[in-house]
Design a protein that fits this description.
With 260 residues, the protein is mainly alpha-helical. The chain contains eleven helices and two strands. The chain has a two-stranded antiparallel ribbon. It starts with 6 loop residues before the first helix and ends with a helix. The relative contact order is 0.10.
């Protein structure tokens, strides 16, 4: 990433000396990452959430990433920082409770419906079957998905609680393998989460799987994904919402089974 000359030298100075000057240079150099992440997150939020506020939340994530980044781990800083910046923004959004409780309740009920129907039918349920299970019309079901889009757009970027007295958390980037860790007990839960998530993604309908891949791994916006698939942005938003609810339902179900 360009911005200041010889970033590796600045990193070395900061990690070895912890100087305030090198820290500020790193913040200045990587500040565009915060604007990039804030822009992606803001595209799926209601208009009352200000982009400038998201940037300010994200700066704290960038600072945290710079403080905690370990160059020896072999992970590119941008990859590590983006996850931390998203986490800081989402933590703040959750703290101000910007999604109505009624929508959160309906989201949990829909997650449970997906899991229950999949277990009962031994396959992925259709929209009609889910709507019937929820005692609503197909139109009401689609309207509900639209209302839930604000929740689902940031769902996979949330930090996952991994238990412990300290309330430890892990982001998706933390699931990248660290070959220096030899004790299986230290990595079991992360590895199990990776396995469950991968299995849940593989069970998604093909188009929902494509949406997840293009949005989270290729960095495309919902509008761009719509152009790829030949559908409207609204339709992509619905597919994304359904995919996230399916994934969260399966993860919560698996997590509950592991805790028994």
């Amino acid at each position: 990433m360009e911005g200041i000359e010889d970033v590796s030298t600045i990193w070395k100075q900061f990690k070895e000396e912890g100087s305030q000057e090198s820290r500020e240079k790193l913040i200045l150099n990587y500040a565009p990452l915060v604007k990039y992440v804030a822009g992606r997150v803001s595209s799926g939020l209601p208009p009352n959430i200000e982009y400038a506020d998201l940037v300010s939340y994200g700066i704290f994530g960038l600072i945290d990433a710079i403080e905690k980044y370990d160059p020896d781990r072999g992970i590119k800083f941008e990859t590590y920082a983006i996850a931390r910046i998203k986490g800081a923004i989402i933590d703040e959004l959750r703290s101000i409770d910007w999604v109505p409780r009624s929508i959160r309740f309906k989201a949990r009920e829909l997650e449970k419906s997906y899991v229950a129907l999949e277990n009962e039918l031994k396959r992925l349920p259709s929209d009609e079957e889910v709507a019937k299970h929820m005692c609503m019309s197909l139109g009401e079901y689609h309207q509900l998905l639209q209302q839930m889009s604000f929740i689902s757009l940031v769902a996979l970027d949330e930090l996952w609680n991994v238990g412990g007295d300290k309330g430890d958390k892990v982001s998706l980037v933390d699931t990248l393998e660290d070959s220096r860790v030899k004790d299986p007990s230290k990595t079991y839960e992360i590895e199990e989460m990776k396995r469950i998530l991968a299995d849940a993604i593989n069970r998604l309908p093909e188009r929902e799987k494509i949406v997840i891949s293009l949005y989270y791994y290729e960095g495309l916006t919902l509008r761009e994904i719509g152009e790829v698939l030949g559908v409207t942005e609204s339709r992509v938003c619905q597919m994304h919402t359904k995919a996230i609810l399916r994934l969260k339902g399966r993860l919560n179900s698996a997590k509950g089974a592991l805790e028994v």
